[in-house]
Amino acid sequence: MPHQLIDPYARRVDYLRLSVTDRCNLRCTYCVPAEGFRFLPHEDILRYEELLRLVDIAAGLGIRKVRITGGEPFVRKDILDFLARLCAMPEMHDVSVTTNGLLLASVAKDLWAAGVRRINVSLDTLQPAKYSAITGVDGFESVWRGLWTALEIGFFPIKINVVVMKGVNDDEIGALAQLTLTSPFHVRFIELMPFRPETYRQRYLSSDEVMEKVASLGELIPTCSDNGNGPARYYQFRGALGKIGLISPMTHHFCPTCNRLRITAEGALRTCLFVESEIDLRGPLRRGFSDEQIASLIRHAIRTKPQRHQL
Length: 311
Ligand code: SAM
Fold this sequence. Notes:
The chain is an alpha/beta fold. It is 32% helix and 20% strand. The chain contains ten helices and 14 strands. Strands 9-10-11-8-7-6-5-4-3-12-13-14 form a twelve-stranded mixed β-sheet. A two-stranded antiparallel ribbon has the order 1-2. Bound molecules: S-adenosylmethionine.
């Protein structure tokens, strides 16, 4: 019987979201705090060797999918070598990356060569000026080029993550959804989460409201993801090349099927994005704990995975 991580609510945890840096080359209005944000000192961030060891231990416990995130993964030096080593691990059936796409055009070829086949790209607008206003960087063209370069190389699926904000980009829901008519992108509309309460109160729009707008454009056929079960509900316009996804952490939360663990850039293990409690793995890694001791910390965390978030 292979090792498996089963939590107290009978969910099998086989998916790890691994943050490789807290640094980012964007300053999105809804993500980072307006002021007082400080990057971690370099020595507090897990080294690649440490990250690989953790993934190896997690693989021994039944983790089979890993998504690399950040911060922005592509701002970390030597990230492509790290990804190649991750993809070479036989137990990891699925290695994917979440990126803001700013550097994607320049790394896409090497990313493919490293073995990555799936990417998620965050893009909240199709309008360059609005992109700059949301992210603080004049970067729309770079992301757009990155998306099409990745498509040409063969990445699939390419998911475009759109955080929907009332009065900011809700007027573009139609245009973003219609991208899927002629291109195979999976455009996924995500409910704004309250990381910055003042933005949240003004800007939140539910997935049901998004769905109403999308459905007014044409018949939508329910469909499934191209890579197993994730948090999104998927639909397709008749004859469309791409798909439309709705991710609703606030209204149709996906806790009952949550199969995730998260490790932050400084090595804190979290069993839920919205729960403050975490287990430090960096200390034990650096104090010489054995693989088995670290594995038992992970097993212990799984036993405390909450049934659902309390937002
Ligand atoms: N830099 C990478 C990127 O841009 O995809 C990875 C890290 S970023 C924090 C991961 C995802 O979280 C992005 O899709 C971003 O839009 C989303 N995100 C950040 N703040 C959010 C919020 N308040 N509500 C919903 N999604 C949010």
